[in-house]
């Protein structure tokens, strides 16, 4: 499912908002989440899961072309931990044969 | 700084887009419900600019009860993984937080 398919599905299940409105809302939610993570804020959605940042220590990498060592600074990467309900639903889908 | 919640997201839809409070709340609920629903039907979810939620089937593997040391197999399972997109990775990389989370 892509973002535009998600928009279509949400729009088709309600009558108050146009597809355009739903599209804008979905974009706003995604932007809000990106912004929060960019500021180091966690996201917690009960039943769905949580997003946080994981620290990566600085390391010496290599330029794959030249083999030359490159110093890579410490950084943060986004991390998602699925919530209990999502984990169970997804695992059940395996048993149900999807 | 507290965590971002669905209520905060609904509040922003109310403030920025002028959705009424009920619409805003329903929109945020629908957003996560539909993603969950797709994942529960073994369907990958791709949110461009943010990231992809992928599904991985894991085979049964040997495990151990860490307390007793007893061997118990970890059953085959399906798990969700999140792969952040390039845009999100770049935004987050620059985060100059002083304390690792």
Can you walk through the features of this model?
- The complex is a heterodimer of chains A (98) and B (101).
- Chain A is 43% helix and 28% strand.
- Chain A is an alpha+beta fold and 98 residues long.
- Chain A has a 3-stranded antiparallel sheet. A two-stranded antiparallel ribbon of chain A has the order 3-4.
- In chain A, strand 3 and strand 4 form a beta hairpin.
- In chain A, helix 1 packs across helix 2.
- The mean pLDDT of chain A is 94.
- Chain B has 101 residues and is of the alpha+beta class.
- In chain B, the strands form 2 sheets. Chain B has a 3-stranded antiparallel sheet with strand order 1-2-5.
- In chain B, a hairpin with a 3-residue loop joins strand 1 and strand 2.
- In chain B, helix 1 packs across helix 2.
- Chain B is elongated and about 55 Å long.
- Chains A and B meet through helix 1, helix 2, strand 1, strand 2 and strand 5 of A and helix 1, helix 2, strand 1, strand 2 and strand 5 of B.
Write the layout of secondary structure elements.
The complex is a heterodimer of chains A (98) and B (101).
Chain A: H1 3-12, H2 19-38, E1 43-45, E2 49-56, E3 59-62, E4 69-72, E5 75-82, H3 84-95
Antiparallel strand pairs in A: 1-2, 2-5, 3-4
Chain B: H1 6-17, H2 21-40, E1 45-47, E2 51-58, E3 61-64, E4 71-74, E5 77-84, H3 86-93
Antiparallel strand pairs in B: 1-2, 2-5, 3-4
Strand content of chain B: 25-35%
Number of alpha- plus pi-helical segments of chain B? 3
> Biggest interface and its residues per chain?
A-B, 58 and 59 residues
What separation lies between the terminal Cα atoms of chain B? 12 Å
Total strands of chain A: 5
């Amino acid at each position: 499912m892509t973002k535009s398919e998600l928009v279509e599905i949400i729009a088709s299940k309600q009558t108050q908002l146009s597809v355009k409105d739903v599209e804008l809302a979905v974009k706003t939610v995604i932007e809000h989440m990106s912004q929060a993570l960019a500021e180091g804020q966690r996201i917690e959605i009960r039943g769905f899961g949580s997003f946080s940042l994981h620290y990566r220590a600085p390391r010496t990498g290599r330029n794959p072309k030249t083999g030359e060592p490159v110093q890579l600074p410490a950084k943060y990467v986004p991390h998602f931990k699925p919530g209990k309900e999502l984990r169970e639903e997804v695992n059940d889908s395996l048993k149900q044969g999807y | 700084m507290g965590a971002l919640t669905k209520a905060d997201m609904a509040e922003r839809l109310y403030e920025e887009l002028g959705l009424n409070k009920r619409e805003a709340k329903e929109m945020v609920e629908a957003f996560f419900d539909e993603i969950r629903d797709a994942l529960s039907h073994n369907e990958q979810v791709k949110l461009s600019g943010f990231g992809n939620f992928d599904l991985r089937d894991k085979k049964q593997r040997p495990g151990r009860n860490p307390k007793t040391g007893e061997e118990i197999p970890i059953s085959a399972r399906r798990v969700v993984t999140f792969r952040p997109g390039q845009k999100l990775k770049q935004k987050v990389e620059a985060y100059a937080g002083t304390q690792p989370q």
